[in-house]
Design a protein that fits this description.
The protein has about 425 residues and is of the alpha/beta class. The chain has 12 helices and 23 strands. Helices cover about 30% and strands about 25% of the residues. The strands form 7 sheets. Strands 1, 2, 14, 15, 16, 17, 22 and 23 form an 8-stranded mixed beta sheet that branches. It has a 4-stranded parallel beta sheet with strand order 11-10-12-13, sandwiched between helices. The two termini are about 25 Å apart. The structure holds flavin-adenine dinucleotide (FAD). It holds the Pfam family FAD_binding_2.
């Protein structure tokens, strides 16, 4: 099977890269072995939340001071500024409304009741301009009886710091009787499916919420609405007669899965082919070019392309792997940007900047992968499989994933 471009990995990076290429008329395929980090998505895409331990107000300004090895510096500050405008538009064309600006972080309330700086927030969630103020003084935190993946007491505790007087209330609905019998069934996605199925459950729920929120200024609920049907959140907001603040629950993330579904749908509507549940096992290299990849499900059928993109994620998705003996990229054995001495991978102080978090696949200045220092001319690398940043520490995960992907797509389109 022959494509213009094949992308290995169907997470946020693979999908944004694939959509951009497909929008330009390229015949693309994405091969993805499994779930991606989007299934754990908080509702916000971070660009740069912290630098040297300090909170960042203007990420576009702050990235100018990052080291040369950081993916943002390697893409180039001007390119990043341009692509940061393009990214929400691309997401929007996929039916996902993300709001925010790259030159001014806003804040979102975390499930721990803390305000966190971020770049783009899905419109399900509430964006706050100030870190230290919560606009309401009396809040009701509501949860479904038996739903253990929303920690109301953490939220309540966090809100105390904003002088918010809050009360936690649990409630039951007959629609959840069946799934409540088994705690492993009482999960966010199963709750969301009940509300996806029809207006009746949502109407009954909204009535309950309105009753329980009497005397309060704002309602706080777990983000378990709109798995396949994106109108559920807007519908719910219109039926509740107080402002509604949704907070992420423990994964699987309902807005995350919805985002993944929408991005994949957009890619396929543009003519892209998405091979889900297939693992790329190896590739054929000839004269410093990757000519084909071989996957578990396709067996002897090789997948060929003019250009390939490796967007296989970091350790979490096995884009790179560490054993006791070595650190490696499992498909082609690409060069790794990381220490060969495993004694240096970890800092014994858990909260310090962990060295291994900076590791990833090494690339040349065009983001092409290397083997023994030689670039593979048609294999580009994007997203969290790249090294050069501790995305967790600096709050830059989605920013690096989306913006390096768009940049790599531009390299291919040149
Ligand atoms: C648990 C978790 C939660 C996060 N939440 C957020 C958040 O809320 N906001 C934020 O800004 N950042 C978040 N991040 C940071 C995250 O790195 C980025 O946001 C981004 O989603 C990463 O996208 P990616 O496509 O590079 O990698 P991934 O999402 O890891 O996707 C890689 C994909 O490649 C596939 N793959 C791997 N190897 C192969 C192979 N051999 N063959 C075929 N497919 C393969 C995997 O199955 C996976 O689907 C989170 C990270 C993690 C780990």
């Amino acid at each position: 099977m022959k494509f213009d471009n094949i992308i290995i990995g169907g997470g946020l990076s693979g999908l944004t890269c694939g959509i951009k290429l497909a929008e330009q008329g390229k015949k693309c395929a994405i091969v993805s072995s499994g779930q991606s980090a989007i299934h754990f998505f908080s509702g916000s895409f971070d660009f740069l939340g912290k630098l040297n331990g300090q909170e960042v107000k203007n990420p576009l300004e702050a990235i100018k001071t990052l080291p040369d090895s950081h993916p943002y510096q390697r893409v180039g500050v001007e390119n990043i500024a341009r692509l940061a405008v393009e990214a929400p538009l691309l997401l929007n064309r996929a039916g996902l409304s993300f709001l925010g600006k790259a030159d001014q972080n806003h804040f979102v309330l975390t499930p721990m009741g803390i305000m966190k700086p971020t770049w783009l927030t899905l419109d399900d969630f509430t964006r706050f301009e100030q870190k230290n103020t919560f606009p309401w003084k009396k809040a009701v935190i509501l949860n479904f009886s038996g739903f253990l993946d929303f920690h109301t007491l953490f939220v309540q505790d966090g809100l105390k710091k904003f002088d918010v007087d809050s009360q936690v209330k649990n409630f039951a609905m007959k629609e959840f009787e069946a799934i409540r019998r088994n705690p492993s069934e009482m999960r966010s996605t199963n709750i969301a499916k009940v509300f996806d199925q029809g207006e009746d459950a949502l109407n009954e729920f909204a009535e309950k919420v309105n009753l329980l929120s009497e005397g309060f200024e704002v309602v706080i609920l777990p983000a378990v609405f709109g798995l396949f049907n994106k109108n559920v959140v807007a519908n719910l907001k219109s039926k509740i007669n107080k402002p509604l603040v949704l907070l992420p629950a423990i994964p699987p993330s309902v807005p995350g899965i919805r985002s993944q579904i929408f991005l994949r749908k957009r890619f396929e509507e543009l003519g892209g082919t998405y091979f889900l549940g297939d693992n790329v096992e190896e590739g054929t290299l000839e004269n410093n070019r990757l000519v084909a990849i071989h996957t578990k499900n396709h067996g002897d059928i090789k997948l060929e392309a003019d250009h390939f993109v490796l967007a296989s994620g970091s350790f979490y998705s096995k884009g790179i792997v560490a054993t006791r003996e070595k650190l490696y990229e499992p498909i082609l054995g690409l060069d790794i940007d990381g220490d060969t001495d495993n004694e240096k991978w970890l800092d014994e102080k858990f909260f310090n900047d962990q060295p291994y978090m900076h590791y990833g696949v090494k690339t040349d200045s065009h983001f092409r992968a290397l083997i023994n220092g030689q670039p593979i001319e048609n294999l580009y690398v994007a997203g969290s499989v790249l090294g050069g940043a501790n995305a967790l520490k600096e709050g830059s995960g989605a920013g690096i994933s989306v913006l390096t992907s768009l940049h790599v797509a531009e390299q291919i389109l040149k």
